[in-house]
């Protein structure tokens, strides 16, 4: 299916000053949204100054500085946008128009804020922010709208890159399906592996950047399928090549290719926000979400007796009770749970009848007694629904706990491996029947858990788990049959092992998922842990089992808060120092900005915010931060060759200090930590060492700036700006993005230009 990347459309945000971005644009990623935040904030501050009656010279000068800073920053921003336009012809016209609008709006704001030299700006014939309120608001709106368009257009280039990468993977998969020799297969699979790593990095970045938690969960599920299927594809294809006439081997291989294609297609649907043939996505309805919506409607009667009909409320309850039949009809629901659910369903109908009766009376005659009766009816109805929710939750989670405990020893899988190697077709057939029964139990478990999962991301994870058991079960059976037919085949044995590992891995994931569902139900947690993501850049391995993600709890965050705050203040100091440099393209400045950006993300981690979600994310970021510091030390060595002899020793001494501190940080980040206490100690040490590096950086930047001015050798350290090439794909890590991720198309460069507009704080 040919998919267009042109799917980014809409901003619904607005400010108290009446500023609103273009209603035809929708922001779907955090990077674009966060880029606009400082611009909206500073322009709002600027607009708000117009209504202040007292205008001192200091205020007038500050307003003029803001206007000039906006104009300069927008000019730099537009230059980047125009460079992107020149390298992406299909977006050139739209991007150019948006850039022209942004430049024009920036210049208008600069003109309207040119008030510092005016003694009485109101009486002067010169049009200013004080005399043309409509003009400045119009210019601000145009600026926000055009900057947003540039960002969204740049984001479309990122989407295009993901689609291009997907297409490359699909093309190579077609070649892999048709190969007839091992030599040819090995060559093509090597290319396929590299393409999958690239695709994993691109989609991983996108997953982190998505605002919609539901889409993030769908992306995580698709990427988990691709991760596991990559190894399956290798062994299934090799088995087919070794046994070309074996029907079960062919079925096994075809199943893997089909599942990978579906996952690749879903990724593109998510990033383009489209569905095949234009069909709308049908959201799964769970009992939990149905009860939540029903209770909201019932409780809404306290405020408004007329906002919905009794038929509407009755229909909502009917839908909920229809879904409870998934529990009462299930062969795996205990007799006790079934009876309780049926009793509560009957009670819910009675409570609603009583509620509707009092409600109708209250609509005709709003007396105090009737309103009290209505309140009682509302409370009793909601209490009944809470009890029903608790009962279905108990039924689903107790079944899941029992099944996961029962299947934890993987008896059937072990038996299939043994009987397969023995070539015992009869025994294999017997155990495949038992595996099919186990599959049906686990699929039913996933369906029931979905009803009580509590959040949309967890619902999606339940659906993903159901699909995995549904597909992997038959694949294990075909792999076992192949081994039984060829018991001496090492590759057939390896193939069965891989599919059994995928089954075991999914059972392990279910234990995490069950814990998450219980946490949500008990109010301990509102977000889904990301335990389905692919390994991080540089760590990609089809056999690699993901580390269990760990987050800091509230107590740990409190302990580390002071250290995090110190890190935050240091990032502000570094940013202030880098802004003083006339040449923002200087290599030292770029490394400093990259390190500051990463240190800020580590500070956000101490608050439980930002894109670093787990301790493993933090340690990975610390490694990249240290690597960037080492690169900065190299730039300092290069600078030392250009400064005078009497200045060189000091610079080299500071560079050696930096190298030593970065090495210490890298060692700390790489040391293994087992257990909660050891992990927290490692987190504390990483942030402490990062703070020490940032302290040194605060001393280094002014020193280097001074030496450059003194020696007039700034050009010697210049690094050319990177070309805006669409095919500039980096599979390594680039630490100059805010989260240490690959900056391929300049979305982060655009972000940096806007984020650096640090103009004027509200007074």
UniProtKB/TrEMBL annotation:
Subcellular location: Cytoplasm
Primary localization: cytoplasm
Listed Low complexity bias regions: 7-18
Keyword Cytoplasm carried by entry: yes
Annotated region (Disordered), positions in chain: 1-20
Keywords from the named record: Cytoplasm
Gene Ontology biological process terms from the UniProt entry: cell adhesion; Rho protein signal transduction
Name of the protein in question: Alpha-catulin
Protein's organism: Elachura formosa (spotted wren-babbler)
Origin organism lineage: Eukaryota, Metazoa, Chordata, Craniata, Vertebrata
